[in-house]
Amino acid sequence: MRAxxxxxxRRPVHQLEHDGFEVTYLNPKSDGTIAYEGIxxxxxxxxxxxxxxxxxxxxxxxxxVQEVGRLCRERGTYYLVDATQTVGHIPxxxxxxxxxxxxxxxxxxxxxxxxxxxxxxxxxxxxxxxxGGDQERGRRAGxxxxxxxxGLGEAVKFCHAHMAEESTRESNLRDKIIDxxxxxxxxxxxxxxxxxxxxxxAHFSFSDINGEELVSVLDLAGxxxxxxxxxxxxxxxxxxxxxxxxxxxxxxxxxxxxxxGRWTTQEDIAYFLEQLKLKVNQLxxx
Amino acid sequence: MRAxxxxxxRRPVHQLEHDGFEVTYLNPKSDGTIAYEGIxxxxxxxxxxxxxxxxxxxxxxxxxVQEVGRLCRERGTYYLVDATQTVGHIPxxxxxxxxxxxxxxxxxxxxxxxxxxxxxxxxxxxxxxxxGGDQERGRRAGxxxxxxxxGLGEAVKFCHAHMAEESTRESNLRDKIIDxxxxxxxxxxxxxxxxxxxxxxAHFSFSDINGEELVSVLDLAGxxxxxxxxxxxxxxxxxxxxxxxxxxxxxxxxxxxxxxGRWTTQEDIAYFLEQLKLKVNQLxxx
Lengths: 286, 286
Hints:
The structure is a homodimer. Chain A is 36% helix and 15% strand. Chain A is α/β, with parallel strands linked by helices. In chain A, the strands form two sheets. Chain A has a six-stranded mixed sheet, with helices on one face. Chain A is globular, with a radius of gyration of 20 Å. The A-B interface holds A 11, 13-15, 105, 107, 112-116, 128, 131-134, 142-149, 230-231, 234 and B 11, 13-15, 105, 107, 112-116, 128, 131-134, 142-149, 230-231, 234.
């Protein structure tokens, strides 16, 4: 038995358990951050891999990936960081993080859908993910998605060239949303950490609101928001992330994820806030 | 132990053997076709899968996929056809072939690189290839390559709309190449079947010629041809396909794959034939 630690927020990795690995899941604190001490005590002598999301895809909380990286180095375990939410939005350096593996996905930073990248430390030997041809040094056989790969590269270059000002612009819009919602809508809570969060993400729960209804009525008003991640859309159960940070079923089912982007303006935010207040009031008044 | 038959021309599938499957490899006849009787006697009561290339990617030989399909139905084994070389070029029908699985790749019919399709009979239950999200009904998690998928669909539609005339046009060019080479270049042999072959493929071996040199000098003269498949480019060993159909190392190392396509003209072929004769003579005269 060899142990793998996967730090909360990940769905259960049944396949690994089926293959005979023991997987430890750690729970976050209520703001979504992980307790460093919790990881430290969970790493065993037979732990081979620690997996951590740089930022959660629902509530946007940023994790102390560098501290955990140093810990993994000290303890001699491999370290995988899922930077899907952060690359292109905030600075990400595999050197600073001290990770062995890092994953990212182009459509999260305005690149093409369906192409991503896996960073792997040069010295690491891995069996083939797809065997057959010699592509990717024999690790992943198959003709390359050439247009997608070029698109990913161009998109990340563009994001990095504009990151400083764009990140500031987006986090100002995000803060405007958070401050207004918490001030003007009763019985609303912010999920995730107030400051240690993605510059483009705000996530709330409203009591006495059905989140799916709220998303629908806002959609009809021309506002695109979601309850959570794309992976769970269409499911009726409350998000496992929201339950992990301690929300009740009732609060979790009244949740709303709001993200801003390259083309979001102050006027958009003003309109959104006006519509949100209106719709929450209407739904609660029934 | 459960047996899988993979019909020659495939590279050894070491991963399956490593996972405990017994794999039977069948050898082709010298024209590249498989002996139906050979498959029939190789299918055992514990054979779970028969794999067959619709056409070989080097020598272009077409296989009797329908007959093998009927046999697999009778014997109750699953049947996978790799139609990567044929879709878009000749009619392919999963119904006529009676296959359970069929694979194809967009860049083989002028679609985008890096996207393919797996046809799977509706009633078949398979474990996930990539687990995680619910995409592809849980069989392959991950955000779709939307542009690639649309491109694949449009490319195959275009090919089917023009297949009848394009297939005739290309096979006329192919026949012109084959007839001229066999008539005008001494010690040249055609590899694969004379008629049961892809409309766009001709494949030869020339004695006393180093195929890589021939490809290089033709490239300098503006003609793009290859020795074999992209998967084996850069390797020095003779093709496993050519050895399987009984070529000696010496003949296999003097091989040339010539393909025609949508933009190949009669003038191109005339120029190619002139250059080929010239370069073969020059290389042999050294």
